[in-house]
Hints:
The chain has helices spanning about 35-50, 70-85, 145, 150-160, 175-185, 200-210, 210-220, 230-240, and strands at about 15-20, 55-65, 90-100, 105-115, 130, 165-170, 185-190, 225-230, 250-255, 260, 270. The protein is α+β, with helices and mostly antiparallel strands and about 280 residues long. The protein folds into 2 domains: about 15-115, CATH 3.30.1330.10; about 130-270, Phosphoribosyl-aminoimidazole Synthetase, Chain A, domain 2, CATH 3.90.650. The strands form 2 sheets. Strands 6-8-5-9-7-10-11 form a 7-stranded mixed beta sheet, sandwiched between helices. The chain has a 4-stranded mixed beta sheet with strand order 1-4-2-3, with helices on one face. Helix 1 (about 35-50) packs parallel to helix 2 (about 70-85), helix 1 (about 35-50) runs parallel beside helix 4 and helix 6 (about 200-210) packs across helix 7 (about 210-220). It starts with 13 loop residues before the first strand and ends in a 13-residue tail after the last strand.
Amino acid sequence: DAAVLDWSARPDCLVTVDMLMEGVDFTLDTATPERIGRKALAVNLSDIAAMAGKPVACVVALALPQSGGYELGQRLTSGLLPLAEEFGVVLAGGDTNTWQGPLVLSITVLGEPTGRGPVLRSGARPGDWICVTGPLGGSLLGHHLDFTPRVREALALHEATTLHSLIDISDGLAADLGHILEESRVGAVLQAESIPITPAAHEMSRTDHRSPLDHALADGEDFELIFTLAPDEGQRLLARPPAGVAVHHIGDVTAEEGLILRHADGRRVSLASLGWKHPFTSR
């Protein structure tokens, strides 16, 4: 009736849950069930990474369409299991049901912090460097389904330096950095020329007439990490980053609240209105 997890030797429990809905987060016309199943787990693992935690176990709930639901459920599970194995996550249980509506997946992941404790959104300080772990933008061309959650990178950074704040990029660089700034009651200035941009963002800009930089700031579902740390720690990290971890210094935390983008020519633009929207719905 219930899974039993021995937590006696572990520190605090990290818990995250994310729901994906057909027609809102994906369509079965553009993604296979295996990719959808993998993503459903990956977004939760990314939330554990955003706390610099270690994922331990998950439970999966599926609302399947009545027609073809059994085969669909099997394919969804076959998509998520390899990712669970890769990160040492036990599938501890779940539930399935069928209904007249679209496919819905809800996964809950349990994790644990390291001995250094979890990293929160609320610790950014004026003068901190703002860094990201990889290029941004254009996720709708495929990355939003096939990304690898930055669990290993978060743990390596947490071990290598003192992180003041941390978050994963699901809603977009501007929106998710905004969460850190709000929780920490600080502001930030980003340097436009320092923000790493994916080739996919450049590709999308050729057809939708948005700049690659705009894609990097607002597309969302990049699932890279934003973190802040003291400038001296940042210098050391850039000089000797952990193996396999990219570090890009993109701006600085300010005492004055607000999020500003500074261009190379000195222009300053407020980023308060930028943020991610569901790509498959007009809501």
